[in-house]
Amino acid sequence: MSDLLDLYKEVVIDHGRRPRNFRVIEAPSHKADGYNPLCGDRLTLYVQVDNDGVIQDVAFKGSGCAISTASASLLTEHLRGKTVEQAAKIFDHFHRVLTEDGVDSDSTLLGKLAALEGVRQYPTRVKCATLAWHTLHSALNDEGHVTTE
Ligand code: ZN
User: How far is the CA of 71 from the centre of ligand 1 (A)?
Assistant: First the structure.
């Protein structure tokens, strides 16, 4: 089990230091800004969805703590090629794993995002881990911006 925890930690550290898809998408179909005042994390999420509701590209820019950056990076890797509907399902599950007691993570649904599961032991960091997801939700619903408070 501790090996697994170490592995998870490595994934989070790696993505926090070298975020994937850390770039702007010009003329995205959806875009939103997210802000977590508790920690000071800020990010802009860009999403390119095609006419079939498939996420063709997703990227982000911004500055925040290692957890918010790793979470956004893992999100972008995990959601490319998935439908908007699947993304909503993944977010719902991810959010429950982090905020509800006794919800086991479904690794087929979450993939590497399961690495963030340990964050639930630190309630103040949960908002860091979910910021990118709230921002994604806001982008897909064309709300423009979101604050976690
Ligand atoms: Zn943070």
Answer: 10
Longest dimension (CA), the chain: 44
Residue 70 to residue 17: CA distance in whole angstroms: 8
CA distances from 71 to 49, 94, 112, 133, 136 (A): 20, 11, 10, 8, 12
Domain that holds residue 67: 2-142
Residue 147 belongs to a domain: no
Q: Say which CATH number the domain at 84 has.
A: 3.90.1010.10
Per-residue pLDDT of the chain (149 residues; tens, 9 = 90+): 456 567 678 899 999 999 999 999 999 999 999 999 999 999 999 999 999 999 999 999 999 999 999 999 999 999 999 999 999 999 999 999 999 988 888 989 999 999 999 888 888 899 999 999 999 999 999 887 888 86
Work out how many domains the chain is built from and give that number: 1
Decide if 148 is inside a domain: no
Q: Which residues surround ligand 1, an ion (CB under 5 A)?
A: 39, 41, 65, 68, 128
Using the mean position of ligand 1's atoms as its centre, give its distance from the Cα of residue 42 in Å: 9
Distance from residue 131's CA to the centre of ligand 1 (Å): 8
